[in-house]
Specification:
Helix content is 37%, strand content 13%. It has 408 residues and is an alpha/beta fold. The protein has 2 domains: 119 residues, Aspartate Aminotransferase, domain 1 (Alpha-Beta Complex), CATH 3.90.1150.10; 247 residues, 3-Layer(aba) Sandwich (Aspartate Aminotransferase, domain 2), CATH 3.40.640.10. The strands form 3 sheets. Strands 2-8-7-6-5-3-4 form a 7-stranded mixed sheet, sandwiched between helices. The structure holds pyridoxal-5'-phosphate. Pyridoxal-5'-phosphate binds next to helix 5 and helix 6.
Length: 408
């Protein structure tokens, strides 16, 4: 088994090691929950303070033009585009993942009149399923059907308008074959929407090369945009050219928002997917985190992510009561490791008490996210060691570790 000294040698040779100082992490914590809420970039408090004190406090409303507030959703979209394999005019930052899914799913259904089925994965992050229910409820005769991704092909009949899938499963960390699935869905005459919440910033994503029609994703996980930071949406250029219609037709999607005309006339291009004033403080935090991402090589990020997850799997797979739920094949793995344990909840709480922060997803999954920009091999080794000690000592049985907070 690999030793701690060998991990120290891997850290010394790590091409991404210099990124660690870009993050403000507390002492004594091994943070394995960047797949849920990314860490704080060291530069973010200064940038947010500047926007609050200078752009808002001193320049006041002049900042809409002078600080580029009005352009910010597009500017951030152009900066996210290379991280997800999109063109600069195909991405915009706004609202939340759920709201953006509502917009693109409705637009997609309208592009397939006569077809009435939306296929989704029954094990998907539930908000995506709830939104699909909400959208299909607005279309006469439409329905949302849940299938397992490996059963998808059997369900691709002439009634399927749209398929919505997560690129990486939020529980198991399984990575789906984006180009292969997209091609099969489109061959059946349907449109493909990808949710890249768990892959943006975790691995190179190739929306354009995969032929994806639409995508949505959040920025507070691997992209480190901060709690509640705004989401993004992607629409393939070929659809934008045809003027897709989204239902949340607010003034920021209007061709001339400051003409204050009574009728809606959508912008050309991705701007028609905007609805409201951007949340500029959240966008400022995201902007500063993208300054860090701009210098990160996603190929190196992916290589280290696979090495870290390989290491953690190797160190934990033999532990008592543990079963690895994440696929072993690199081509099927995102950037997290999920371990099944019958008492996963108190085990995670006991680990957190030791400074190793992961999280838990019902019924029995302990999730550990691996973020190559700020995690070292040694920390991963230490985290596995702490888990072994928690299991061996049985300390997780203490009653305090079974009390549940509102957020797990
Ligand atoms: C985190 C996540 C979301 C979050 O949705 P919000 O509306 O931004 O809160 C949605 N879908 C998936 C797959 C996620 O992982």
């Amino acid at each position: 088994m690999i030793t701690r000294e060998e991990c120290e040698a891997l850290d010394a040779a790590d091409p991404l090691a210099a990124f660690r100082k870009e993050f403000a992490l507390p002492e004594g914590v091994v943070y394995l929950d960047g797949n849920s809420l990314g860490a704080l970039p060291a530069r973010t408090p200064g940038r947010v303070r500047q926007v609050v004190e200078e752009e808002w406090g001193r320049e006041l409303i002049r900042s809409w033009n002078e600080a580029g507030w009005f352009e910010q959703p597009y500017r951030l979209g152009r900066r996210i585009a290379p991280l997800i394999g999109a063109g600069p005019a195909e991405v915009v930052v706004c609202d939340t993942t759920s709201v953006n899914l509502f917009k693109v799913l409705t637009a997609a259904l309208r592009l397939r009149p006569g077809r009435r089925t939306v296929l989704g994965d029954g094990a998907a992050f539930p908000t995506d399923l709830y939104i699909a229910e909400g959208v299909t409820g607005l279309f006469e005769g439409a329905r949302s059907v849940l299938v397992a991704p490996e059963e998808l092909d059997r369900h691709l009949d002439g009634d399927v308008a749209v398929v919505v899938l997560s690129h990486v499963d939020y529980r198991t960390g399984e990575l789906l074959d984006m180009p292969g699935i997209t091609a099969r869905v489109q061959a059946a005459g349907a449109l493909m929407i990808w949710d890249v919440c768990h892959s943006a910033g975790a691995l190179p994503v190739a929306l354009g090369a995969s032929g994806a029609d639409f995508a949505v994703g959040c920025t507070y996980k691997y992209l480190n945009g901060g709690p509640g930071s705004p989401a993004f949406l992607y629409v393939a250029e070929r659809h934008l050219a045809a003027g897709p219609e989204q239902p949340l037709s607010g003034w920021f999607g209007h061709a001339r928002p400051f003409a204050f005309e009574p009728g809606y006339d959508p912008k050309a291009g991705i701007g028609r997917f905007l609805t409201s004033s951007p949340s500029l403080l959240g966008q400022a935090a995201l902007e500063s985190s993208l300054d860090v991402w701009e210098r990160a090589d996603l190929v190196a990020v992916r290589a280290k992510s696979l090495a870290l997850t390989d290491l953690f799997i190797a160190l934990t797979e033999g532990l008592d009561g543990i079963e690895v739920a994440t696929p072993r094949e690199h081509a099927r793995r995102g950037s997290q490791v999920a371990l099944r344990h019958a008492d996963g909840y108190p085990v995670v709480q006991a680990l957190i008490a030791r400074g190793v922060i992961g999280d838990f997803r019902a019924p029995d999954l302990m999730r550990f996210g691996f973020t190559p920009l700020y995690l070292s091999y040694t920390e991963v080794w230490d985290a596995a060691q702490q888990l072994a000690e928690v299991l061996e000592s049985g300390e997780w049985r203490e009653e305090r570790f079974s009390r549940r907070g509102e957020v797990t």
